Every structure is written in C-alpha cells, then in structure tokens.
Amino acid sequence: MGITILGIETSCDETSAAVLEDGITLRSNIVSSQVDIHKKFGGVVPEVASRKHLENVHPVIMEALEQAKVTLKDINAIAVTYGPGLVGALLVGVAAAKAMAYALDVPLIGVNHLEGHIAANFLTRPDLEFPLLCLVVSGGHSDLVFMPHRGDYQLLGRTRDDAAGEAFDKVARAMGLGYPGGPLIDKLAREGDASALKLPRAFLEEGSLDFSFSGLKSAVLNYLNRAEMRQEEVNKADLAASFQQATVEVLVEKTLLAAERTAVKTIMLAGGVAANGGLRSLLQTRALAAGCTVVYPPLHLCTDNAAMIACAGYYKYLRGDFAPLTLNAVPALSL
Ligand code: KG4
Ligand code: ZN
Question: Which residues bind substrate (predicted)?
Fold first, then answer.
C-alpha cells in the first residue's frame, strides 16, 4: 500500500473524512452535510455546527476507514483543517486529529482550508505544472492566488467586502430561494436572460485585482424592495441570470488580468463557487481566447470535503511539513 493519508475537515457545516493513497487514489470521501439543519435559519449557526460535528466526527471517520478497506495501522499521517473557519467547528476536527495522531504515533499535518480547496485540482490532475494561478471562490473567500511553486501561495487579490459565495447566498435568501443559494441561482439562471437587468460591476481602481460584491448585492436587494413596494412581479430567472452574469464577468476579467500579469498559462478554479456553470463556461471561453487552459475539480470536490484536505496533506507529508501536537484552530488563518 502506498502513502495513506486520513483527511479530516470540520471548518464549517460539513463533517468529512477521507482516505487518500499516494495523493491520487481516493479510497473514500465521506461528507456528512448539516445543510438541512442550518437551512431553517437561512445560514450556518456556529453553535449548532460545533455540536453536530462533535456527534458526527467519530462515525464519519470510522465510515471513511471502513469504505476505504483500511485499518488504523495502514494510516501514515492525519491531515486536518485548522483554519480558516468557525473556531468551535474547527476545534472538533483538530482535537480528533491530534488524538488519533498521538494514539497511532503518526505525523499530524495542519492544512489551511483554502490550500485544501486549491489541492482539490491535484486529485484529478497531479500532472499540472507550475507556475499556476488559482481563483478561489467560496462562501468566505474570493482570492486570486499565484503559485510559482508547489506550496508557495502569493495573494494577488481578494474581496474587500462580501465573498462571491456569500453574495450568491444573500441574494438567494432575498429572492426567497433558500440556502445555500449558489446552486439554486445557478440552476434558475439557466432559464433566464442574463441581459434582462442592468446590474453594476465593480472593477475598482484601474488594474486592481481585488473584488467587491456588496454593491451588486445591494443593487439586487434594492430592486427587489422596489418591486415589492410597487407590487410588481419579479422574473426570478432573469434576475438570477443577470446577477450571476455580473458576478462572473468581474471574476473572469480579473482572473485573466492576473494570468496576463504573471504570464501563467494554466488557471485553476477552486471553492464552492467553482461549481458554478456560468463561471466555468465564461472563464473557459475567455481563457481559450487568451491562450490559457482552465482546470477545475469535479463538482462534488468543489464544495467542502476531506479528500482535498488529504491531498494538500499528502504534498506536505512529502515535504516533511508536520504540525506539533499542540496545533490549535486558527479561525482567521491566511494562506
Ligand atoms: O467552499 P464551500 O463549500 O465552503 C466554504 O469554504 O465557504 O463554498 C460554499 C459556497 C456557498 O456560498 C454556496 O452558495 C456556493 O459555494 N456554491 C455555489 C455553487 N455551489 C456552491 N455558488 C454558485 N454556483 C454554484 N453552483
Ligand atoms: Zn470551503
């Protein structure tokens, strides 16, 4: 058996454990989602998330081992997300990982959640050559990351207010679509006309690689309020399509600018919003015209999962980049 990493992820509302062999053979990836619980509140309730992780973490790890047909003796290292995320949620995974690493006497590897999202690309494409550029778009982040070498992350741009996924979630909530909003808007947008509504695109100062989505979000909320006041019917499909298009155009434009500036030819997408159909297709079209290739993880590996954490952990294992057993959760950890 090759190098076998057990990955654990509990940073937000999914309890996940995965067994990965040699960085590419995914033997199991169990994701226990709390979405149905948090849905009632329209978003993740941190206290509830911690309690659910505590209930789920042990059975999820056992299921991952069982499905992978490995025993504890086969595990070479434990990789765990230690930030960024909700502190109470992170602590559950970190405590479980530390206990296992100590009991099994194997290395503990601390993984940055964003590094995990980026590594999701290497699960199916271990052959990708550096330098690489990655647009990380999730519920908490919209980052443009330049990677000259493996393990070297240079932040070129980030959001100044809402993350892309957060804007999707807030707009969906205002439209009465439910939670999480990204997939619902994505689906609805397919039936709508993206040019139906004129919505703002925030490009910020000339040449800036930062993002801002709060103005766009407010424009949609104002539009909905006005329609309600005037008792006008809202075409939700058109609104979803127009909002998605405005978001995606800015993301794509800045990603291509970053690729040009860094002379990178391979662009990766990562994070929950990387599952967005509009983003994937526009980036692909525009990148092709610019002579760049776009890669993205399969849909189920875009949103939170432990396979990506195990994959990031595998490359850290090869470098001997281990964490002490005093590892703590770092809620605001940066790349
Ligand atoms: O990466 P992720 O699972 O969790 C964080 O680390 O935040 O990302 C979750 C975010 C949510 O905001 C969700 O609405 C968004 O990803 N998302 C999508 C799609 N699928 C998930 N946004 C747009 N289109 C999608 N298809
Ligand atoms: Zn995530």
Answer: 136-140, 169, 182, 186, 276
